[in-house]
Amino acid sequence: MEDYITTYSKIHMRPMSPELSEIRIEDIAHALSLLCRAGGHFPKFYSVGQHCIHCCEEAEARRYSRRVQLACLLHDASEAYLADITRPVKQHLPQYRRIEGLLQDAIFQKYLGTLSEEEKTLWRLLDDTLLYYEFDHFMGEKLMECPGALRSRPVFDTEPFSVTEENYRTWFRKLWEG
User: By C-alpha distance, which of 40, 51, 74, 46 is closest to 128?
Assistant: First the structure.
């Protein structure tokens, strides 16, 4: 078996040693739109792609920079190549976290260059904020102390993956190309 995956765009991508040319937004948008949050345990399908879009929308509502908005959109992009592992399990997988970090850093590098500590703090805060509201909505569970009110109005509903994929690509074009 080779050390690559064949992506949606039919390229061979090596997640363990990513080349920037192998990272494609089409692959990220497609895969994240099909990848379910919470390990598939929400009562309805809700994708990682939707989560990333909602993080991006929240960054926009808070008037964060375009760079932070794009970081929010891309913050789970490594999962397009590795899959999503729930936080309680991931914390016990140091090798996986190293690989995920390497790949996520490559994705950020390709589209944003180096993120400042402040930019990292902002997207991580919004990731936790959306996580809080997603679990409250879907499971009626408050995973942590409320990290603050949402300024955007995310719709936590199932949507066709093609809609999520296109919305993800539209946000990307707006923030990166625009």
Answer: 51
Give buried/exposed letters for 132-167 (b at 16+ CB in 10 A, else e).
bbbbeebeeeeeeeeeeebeeebebeeeebeebbeb
Within 10 Å of residue 98's Cβ, how many Cβ atoms?
A: 10
Note the pLDDT tens digit of each residue in 52-80: 999 999 999 999 999 999 999 999 999 99
DSSP-derived letter for residue 114 is S
Cβ contacts of 96-103, under 8 Å, gap ≥ 24: 99/15, 99/16, 102/16, 102/18, 103/15, 103/18, 103/78
Is-above-0.85 flag for pTM? yes
